[in-house]
Amino acid sequence: MIYRIKPIVDTQTIITAPGVVVEKPVSFLGDVDKDSGVLVQPDSKLRGTRLTGKVFFAPTGRGSTVGSYIIYALKTSGLSPAAIVMHKAEPIIITGAVISGIPLFEGMPIEFYRKPRIIDKVTIKPGGVVEVFE
């Protein structure tokens, strides 16, 4: 399936990576371990999944301003997602993506997030073209 969504921090190259989809809003402070890049969201079915190098799909963000710095710490330690794709990006995640240079996109249909899952392959092209291979 191909989606055309809004780039907030656009990619300059084509990104191809597996995807991780969570169904609930994410806080990078508390839901992602900054020392391992692993999802630790308490009630997530995908708890324990490594986000490093993957396209991370979450409906929106929530929580602490420290989350921006967690995103930055993940990037500087080589543990960040390859890109973040949301239904609606919020200021904390936008700030983290901007200071870290992590591609960030918004506008995925909310229905996309109803089922948490691992996606075999996601391709993101500059300008916000997201192709999902499930």
Which structural category fits the helices and strands? alpha/beta
| Total domain modules | 1
Terminal residue distance? 8 Å
Total helical elements: 3
Poorly predicted segments = none
**Helix-strand pattern, N to C?**
EEEHEEEHEHEEE
CATH superfamily membership, which one? Phosphohistidine domain
Computed Rg: 13 Å
CATH topology: Glucose Oxidase, domain 1
Strand order of the largest sheet: 1-10-9-3-6-7-8-2
| Total E-strand runs | 10
Overall spatial form? globular
Largest sheet: 8 strands, mixed
How much strand content do the residues show? Answer: 25-35%
Mean pLDDT: 97
Percentage of residues assigned to helices = 10-25%
User: What's the CATH C level?
Assistant: Alpha Beta
Can you name the CATH architecture?
A: 3-Layer(bba) Sandwich
List the helices and strands and how they pair.
Layout: E1 2-4, E2 6-9, E3 15-21, H1 28-31, E4 32-33, E5 38-39, E6 55-58, H2 66-76, E7 83-86, H3 91-100, E8 104-106, E9 117-125, E10 129-133
Parallel strand pairs: 3-6, 6-7, 7-8
Antiparallel strand pairs: 1-10, 2-8, 3-9, 4-5, 9-10
Helix pairs in contact: 2-3
